[in-house]
């Protein structure tokens, strides 16, 4: 008899099969028991009819507890009434591992309790759906960049110097040296682009974010493409094409997950329309000031400001050309004015905030050196990085997309902690 996974049920209608799974729920009467089964691939229903099985099997079915693991043997049948479309008419049940007093029921417990039990919370259908979307975003990312001719490159995680804000760095010891966990692979990706042309990385990123928000993890994953011979406008075109591709693939391949999450698919569909609107930082400040926001030119936007701007559009929106003073040293100034840089943030709709930050990089040796000095950075630490401008410097651009931000948005989840299997948050490193 064939051992199958629930997801394959449609290919085995009318056949006797064996499935290993867990009992996620159960209902029974005197004559029939309905078992909600999950096996990690999907969910569906097992039906045990008293008159069709041995008495011991029916009694066993009635006694099964939540999250007990079982082998069930039965015949797959189409069932248009069930939301899964199929069910198994159970003939045999074998308990593999009993589960006594399963501690959590997601609908009934508060967040702290669920977070303490994250290892079990992951078994819920909502978390399952989010993890499927996470998988699809990763899969489609590799596919997209592969189709576009990018090479995947892995920058180091232990680094000797920091790309950006030093207050968020995780310090560690590297034998007799000081080292930091990577906050961004960008500088290395620039080197990779000079060697390989178009590259992207996908890796973990560590930031000691000191404030609690719904949008920040301490450990998150970032996709960082870097492109030689591309200016900021060409980079924006790649960015919107990439994000629209992610949305389309989630729509195409995560239908069931989106249903479980009750995500509005018509809304998601709008996010596949290109191009995405673009607004300059200057225009954004004017817009905010005209709507009673207390903001001066030169300040960075926080979540309320980003949400207000995003709400003017029904697609993701780019905010272009931020003030040089609030951006990192490596961004190239605008050719017509020195107070802003050639950069953009992509802001997700519906209040999900910044999902991409990107820029054209300073490619001039002298200008870069001056910027490093202005930022109080030690030129010695960046000697290798300056080499990229000494030996055949070219215009180049790149960006970083936050994986969990994107997943939070696509799945319509409240808080970023659900977009990663084991979130690292301020004051939480367990489980
Ligand atoms: P924010 O303004 O939201 O703090 P940032 O400007 O500091 O983000 P970047 O350095 O531009 O972030 O990083 C690129 C992308 O990484 C961001 O657009 C966002 O999607 C994601 N990101 C940044 N910080 C975090 C974090 N702490 N947790 C999860 N994702 C993050
Ligand atoms: Mg930040
Ligand atoms: Mg930002
Ligand atoms: Mg940013």
TrEMBL record:
CDD domains: AsnRS_cyto_like_N, AsxRS_core. Its main location: cytoplasm. GO terms for biological process: asparaginyl-tRNA aminoacylation. GO terms for molecular function: asparagine-tRNA ligase activity; ATP binding; catalytic activity, acting on a protein; nucleic acid binding; transferase activity. InterPro entries: Aa-tRNA-synt_II, aa-tRNA-synth_II, aa-tRNA-synth_II/BPL/LPL, Asn-tRNA-ligase, Asp/Asn-tRNA-synth_IIb, NA-bd_OB-fold, NA-bd_OB_tRNA. It is found in: Cytoplasm. Pfam families: tRNA-synt_2, tRNA_anti-codon. GO terms for cellular component: cytoplasm. Residues 133-431 form the Aminoacyl-transfer RNA synthetases class-II family profile domain. It catalyses: tRNA(Asn) + L-asparagine + ATP = L-asparaginyl-tRNA(Asn) + AMP + diphosphate + H(+). This is Asparagine--tRNA ligase. The lineage of its organism: Bacteria, Bacillati, Bacillota, Bacilli, Lactobacillales. The gene is asnS.
